[in-house]
Amino acid sequence: MSQSPATPTYRFTQPIVGMIWAQTNTGVIGADGGMPWHLPEDMAHFTRVTKGHPVVMGRKTWESFPDKFRPLPDRTNIVVTRQQGWGSTPEASGAVVLDSLEEALVEAQFSPGGNEVWVIGGGQVYEQAKEHCNVAVITVINTDARGDTQAPGLSSEWTFRGATPLEGWHTAKNGTEYRFTLWAKGETEFQAE
User: Fold this and answer.
1) In this structure, are residues 95 and 159 in contact, taking their beta carbons and an 8 Å threshold?
2) HEC string for the chain
3) 98-131 pLDDT, tens digit each
4) Residue of 28, 54, 90, 102 with fewest CB within 10 Å of its CB?
């Protein structure tokens, strides 16, 4: 076990469309519109990876953020929804609202920092996005907490590219064990920093 790990940093040598999430050992990513754990170290990791790059999410994910965190700072926040007229409501303030994932991914690539685009949830958006993505950054939390939303399954096209720590777990200040993992599809190249 290790204490207070440095968050891994990767420099991708080509444009990427990535997915980022945290999950339990059994693949649970959500419960009742939130996460069934409290892990500030993962939130810091999420911020470090996505900051300065556009993030794409579904409306329910956007609505799950407390008002004070919407929009996520230093990122173009793109929300995909089929709900007609939602983009003109006060709740959508600060978001670029589009009605398809494909439009959202194009918008993201033309946004500041669009050489890296991060899909941040929820479950339906991940399922739609995985065919367009070439990187997945996954925090695995050593718990079997129950939930109602599962992580998308990664097919055999995806290969494990590394973990921090490679064996064992980091231990959070609250005692929760976790590790950061990186998966890639195809010939995606990156350098660890």
Assistant:
1) no
2) CEECCCCCCEEECCCEEEEEEEEECCCEEEECCECCCCCHHHHHHHHHHHCCCCEEEEHHHHHHCCHHHCCCCCCCEEEECCCCCHHHCHHHCCCEEECCHHHHHHHHHCCCCCCEEEECCCHHHHHHHCCCCCEEEEEEECCCCCCCEECCCCCCCEEEEEEECCCCCEECCCCCEEEEEEEEECCCCEEEC
3) 999 999 999 999 999 999 999 999 999 999 999 9
4) 90
pLDDT band (50, 70, 90) for residue 4: very low
Q: d(Cα 58, Cα 188) in Å, to the nearest integer?
A: 26
Angle in degrees, CA 126, 132, 134, rounded to 5 = 95
Q: Is the peptide bond before 90 cis (omega within 30 degrees of 0)?
A: no
- Rounded to two decimals, the pTM is 0.89
Q: Which domains does the chain have, with CATH numbers?
A: 2-192 (3.40.430.10)
pLDDT, mean over the chain: 90
% of the chain at pLDDT higher than 90: 82
End-to-end Cα separation, the chain, in angstroms: 22
Virtual CA dihedral for 156, 159, 52, 25, nearest 10 degrees?
Answer: 80
